[in-house]
Amino acid sequence: MLTGWTIAAHAVWITDADMGILKARGTGLAHNPSSNMKLSSGAAPVVKILQRGIPMGLGTTASRGSNNDVNLMEEMDMAAKLQS
Fold first, then answer.
1. Residue 7: pLDDT over 70
2. With 0-12 CB in 10 A as exposed, 13-18 as middle and 19+ as buried, what is 75?
């Protein structure tokens, strides 16, 4: 399943074993902090993910009920505040 160019979104409940698989497969992650907060699903362990060398970017989720906007500056602000 995780072959080729794959980017997984959210990664809120990711385990150490999951991170090992993602690293081995070269899978990237998209961190969507505002969406995760609005849905009360938790926050991705960004520092731990980056320490493992897993590529991670920042994303927006514009679907209804999830975030409702695509403001990347807002996502950067929220991501920084969540990991403090």
1. yes
2. buried
Q: Which residues pair with 28 in a beta bridge?
A: 7
Sign of CA dihedral 77, 48, 32, 27: positive
DSSP the chain: ---SS-EEE--TT--HHHHHHHHHHT-EEEE-HHHHHHTT-----HHHHHHTT--EEE----STTTT----HHHHHHHHHHHT-
Answer whether 0.90 is exceeded by the pTM. no
Query: Residue 27 above 60 pLDDT?
Result: yes
Query: Please, which contacts does 2-8 make with residues 24 or more away whose CB atoms are closer than 8 Å?
Result: 2/27, 7/57
Amino acid identity of 41? S
Q: Are 52 and 17 in contact (CB under 8 A)?
A: no
